[in-house]
Specification:
Elements: E1 44-46, E2 51-53, E3 75-83, H1 91-102, E4 107-110, H2 141-156, E5 160-163, H3 181-196, H4 198-202, H5 214-217, H6 229-238, E6 243-244, E7 256-258, E8 261-263, E9 268-270, E10 277-279, H7 282-290, H8 301-320, E11 327-332, H9 340-352, E12 358-360, H10 363-372, H11 375-381, H12 393-399
Parallel strand pairs: 3-4, 3-11, 3-12, 4-5, 6-8
Antiparallel strand pairs: 1-2, 7-8, 9-10
Length: 401
């Protein structure tokens, strides 16, 4: 849950959706696998067998192609999920299927505690908080089993498994905003431990291991409530992380690096019917619609769902028809206000796919692409304001000093 992210409107309001166009470029993610474990004779269990090395991740681009000077960049969209636990509402498998249907990759920010049984909560020693404390609930055993299942399927389908850390401390004296870089190192180490030792901690020895080495897989995260990034980034850089997605209220412009780590902020998007913009996350839209209650008046649900959908599509259209800055949208597997925000995400995905050069990718895949580009060209892209089309076209932009 995050701040409201209000600011003056910078671009377009509600408008008709874009007409359909052709397919994406040749280095787009290939068709989704089917969620079946990869067949490999070289699979090796790691540690207690909670994870394993099954080789390269399926469903990844075969190559990251550097743009030619003056070439129009793709329109990247990253849908990400905070917590990424299956709590029994069926939302995790729902969006895995939707991603398969549309050839999309996403980022799942896994909370480490979602793989730790509550009976073992004494194993969690959160920085500046009591042993076992957490501002999010521990999952029931059946939900832990389901979360392990869908995290496995997600990785096999080509999605990224990143981290949302553990206890989600947003307020009080132990809030993550008070944490030091050493505290973040401690929290990250524990998150990795919970993912790589869930067999020992849960006793679920009959469940197949996760098909990846999490210490290699983990290259980015998002902090609770988008707090504490300043102290986190030095730890992220020391660990070799490639990006962080914890900045609030960013503009729809091309990203930059902080401490040598790509900074991927949630963004301010045009909010239909309002003079301010809203942060590109389901909770922030909710906060402005139902005053932070997750069960507002049901009579408002149809209008709120349409407003949320159009918010995402307005942000997409402003980027796609303008500076082509990557669009970042954050979500939770929650049925707030009757599940309208989940419906809005699904409708938005359907409205974005099918257009020429649109790529629904994970944060790690976007990082791969950015790192393959000419830094001088990216710097020129960053001169474009939200919704701004290059004067005289992209080729002219490439020819500017």
């Amino acid at each position: 849950m995050h701040g409201l992210g209000r600011r003056a409107v910078l671009g377009l309001g509600g408008a008709a959706l874009l007409g359909a166009a052709g397919c994406g470029s040749s280095d787009q993610v290939p068709p989704r696998p089917t969620g079946k474990p990869p067949e490999t004779s070289s699979s090796m269990k790691i540690g207690d067998g909670s994870t394993s090395d099954t080789g390269p991740q399926p469903g990844q681009p075969t190559a990251q192609v550097r743009l030619e000077a003056g070439e129009t960049p793709p329109q990247f969209v990253v849908f990400s999920w905070d917590g990424a636990g299956e709590i029994g509402n069926g939302l995790f498998p729902r969006f895995l299927k939707l991603a398969r249907d549309h050839g999309a990759s996403m980022t799942f920010f896994l909370s480490g505690l979602y793989l730790l049984s509550e009976s073992k909560k004494h194993l969690y020693r959160p920085p500046r908080n009591p042993v076992g404390a957490s501002d999010i609930g521990y999952l029931k055993d059946e939900n832990i089993r389901s979360t392990i299942r869908y995290i496995r399927e997600a990785w096999i389908d080509g999605h990224e498994i990143a981290t949302h850390f553990n206890g989600h401390f947003c307020g009080g004296p132990g809030s993550v905003v008070t944490w030091s870089t050493a505290d973040w190192h401690n929290e990250i180490s524990q998150a990795v431990s919970f993912v790589t030792n869930w067999r020992t901690n849960t006793g679920f020895t009959e469940i197949s291991p996760l098909p990846f080495d999490y210490r290699k897989e983990l290259v980015g995260g998002r902090t609770p409530c988008l707090l504490g990034q300043e102290s986190l980034l030095p730890a992220a850089a020391e660990l070799g992380w490639r990006y962080d997605a914890s900045s609030p209220g960013g503009l729809q412009i091309w990203p930059t690096k902080k401490h040598g780590v790509w900074d991927f902020p949630l963004q301010s998007l045009p909010f239909p019917g309002h003079s301010f913009e809203v942060l590109s996350m389901d909770y922030n839209i909710l906060a402005n619609q139902s005053n932070k209650t997750t069960r507002g008046a049901s009579s408002n649900y149809p209008a709120w769902r349409a407003q949320a959908t159009l918010t995402y599509l307005n942000g997409f259209r402003r980027a796609y028809q303008g500076n082509r800055a990557p669009l970042f949208i954050g979500n939770h597997f929650e049925e707030w206000n009757g599940g309208i925000y989940m419906d809005a995400v699904e409708e938005a995905i359907r409205g974005m796919t099918g257009h020429k050069d649109v790529r629904l990718v994970s944060f790690r895949q976007l990082t791969d692409w950015l790192d393959a580009q000419d830094p001088r060209m990216l710097e020129k892209f960053r001169t474009l304001a939200p919704g701004q089309i290059p004067e005289n076209g992209w080729r002219a932009l490439a020819q500017t000093p």
